[in-house]
């Protein structure tokens, strides 16, 4: 099997100035190192533990914003590259949203599950995050409050949270909601 590597933020979402997060590079790799890049420039190198290398960011500033990627390197050769992860650092000026899950946090496989992100702001749109997911988060549009999963399966399990914004240029942001753990039985 070819080596693969993915990149995600833990916790996910936009980071406030002074806030902290961890860039996680998860790889299917035997030996070698994980190299973190920003804007195509090499930043830091770590040896993965249990298939993961973590790069913490604390006291975030605008300098921390930008495109990041992970490379898996062994014997001087790049064996795998992750997708690009865009990190955003913005002040939070909207109220913190509340995430709820219907019918509940434990559901049978095949159930219809609704995530509801509630915020006291008339025209905010929200993102639904799944921790560890390296694809772009799902967008809950302004004209709908819910994100629906018609038939859940084991792959939908995990830690979810949401974050809202308003303005055409994603001008104002909320803090990230408390996270909820979905279990599929």
Structure report:
Pfam families: Ig_2. One of its GO terms (biological process) is immune response-regulating signaling pathway. This is IGSF1 protein. This protein is mainly β. It has 2 domains: 4-87, Immunoglobulin-like; 98-184, Sandwich (Immunoglobulin-like), CATH 2.60.40. 0% of the residues lie in helices and 52% in strands. It is built from no helices and 18 strands. It has strands spanning 4-10, 21-28, 33-38, 41-46, 52-57, 66-74, 77-81, 85-87, 92-94, 98-102, 106-107, 113-118, 125-130, 138-140, 146-149, 158-166, 172-174, 180-184. Strands 9, 11, 13, 14, 16, 17 and 18 form a 7-stranded mixed sheet that branches. Strands 3, 4, 6, 7 and 8 form a 5-stranded antiparallel sheet that branches. It has a 3-stranded antiparallel sheet with strand order 1-2-5, with no helix packed on it. A hairpin with a 2-residue loop joins strand 6 (66-74) and strand 7. The chain is flat and about 50 Å long. The model has no long low-confidence stretch (mean pLDDT 90).
- Sheet with the most strands, sense and barrel status: 7 strands, mixed
The count of domains is: 2
Number of strands: 18
Cα end-to-end separation:
30 Å
Organism: Eolophus roseicapilla (Galah cockatoo)
Protein name: IGSF1 protein
Keywords: Disulfide bond, Glycoprotein, Immunoglobulin domain, Repeat, Signal
